[in-house]
Structure formats: C-alpha cells, structure tokens
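Supplementary Methods, section 5.1.

A reviewer requested that the exact input to the structure prediction be made available. We therefore reproduce it here, unchanged from the version used in the analyses.
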Amino acid sequence: MQTIPRQRSFTLIEPSDRLRAHSFTLIELLVVIAIIAILASMLLPALAQAKEKAKSAICQSNQKQIFSAVSLYVDRFDEWYPPQMINDWAWPFWVDLVEDVLPDAKAGTTSGYNNEVFYCPSEVKHHSISDIGNNSYILACIWVGAPHTLNWSLLRSIKQVTKPAERILTVDSKEPSVAMGSWYVGGGFVTGGVGIGTSKPYPPRHNMGMNAVFCDGHMQWITASQMVNDRMELFGANGL
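The structure derived from this sequence is encoded token-by-token as follows.
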C-alpha cells in the first residue's frame, strides 16, 4: 500500500504582523540616537584637530618655500637680507623682492597674491600682501625719517645674525588693528604690542600656537604664550 507523505503546515503572517515583529520601540530608538550623539561629540573635536593639523602642515610648507626664496635672494645679493620695504608703505615690499623665485606675486593688489605660499590656510581674513610676517629686525625697513629717505645702513646680512637657530625669520602674524593677517612683525609689535587673539600680533592659528621659520631654516611650532613671553629673544630685539 502506497503511503502519501504528510504535508507540512505553515502559519501565514500578515505583512503588518511581520513589520510589527521587527520594529523598534521608542525607547530603543532613543537609546540608539543617544549613542550616536555621544560618538559624534567624541569624534568631531578629533576631526577638527586633524583638519587643523593638515592646515598647519600646509602653512609650514609655505614658510619653508619662503625661506628658500629668501635664501636664494641672500645668495644673489652678497649675503644681504631683503629689506622689509623701500618705499613709503607701498610697493615693493619684501615679498616682491623674492618674486623671481616665487613668481606671480603682486603686492598691494585688491585680489592679493596669486602665489598661495603667502597665505595661511587657517587665517579667516587674508591680508592683501601676506599672512606671514617677516621679522623686521632682520628684514629691516630702510624707509625712515621725516622726510622719508632710504637708509641702506639698516640692511642686515646673515653675518650679523649670530644666533640663527634662535632668531625667527618669518612667522604667523596678525594685524594688531584689524582682524586679518599681517605681512610683518617686529618693532612695536615686539616691544609693546603684546597680546594673543584675533586682533593681536601673535595669532594662535594652529591649535593655540603658531608656525615659525628660524634663520637657520628649521621650522618650529611655538605656543602663543611662549611667543609672548620670549618674543624679545625670538626676534632679537636686544641683539641678533
């Protein structure tokens, strides 16, 4: 006698029942949202710091290129540094004097420089000349007096910088009067213009610090507080 296999029985689940079986409760959703919020609060500061480190690296690279340009200028002009400016607060500035090495640089234009090495990516408002300030004790202003005349004796040579590893050549700088970058720092900025912030000569652009290239070519990240405390020595205000 042939046996007929028994058929298995199935329980049909309506789509609404299936959906209800896999849905989250309100409490579970709130827990998930809270976990995501906690993770975001932990990750966002780290991402912001990583982004700023990348900008700082670009700024350091820019200043190294500027140092190379200044060094080539020094080699060409018998070991004399370029002056800060040779006109009455007008073109050409020190950045123009290294134009042969860093082309397409036009100071004082409304659009600013074409060459990005003069800009700090962390600066919110760019100066039309540069966001990187020169040490005016070394790249000195020779346009002096009243009436103004050129005093070439104020030029500095590399032989006069007796402590190149301790003297800043270029650094992140800020205009003390307005919230934008600055193309020079020194003089009154060093002796009297003490301060940290958006309208101070020492901007903590890079994680509460700033990048500086020294006269021997090494790059250093300096905290804003260290810059304020050691500014006289770093800029050579009492002797190079």
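The first strand starts at residue 132 and ends at 135. These observations are discussed further in the main text.
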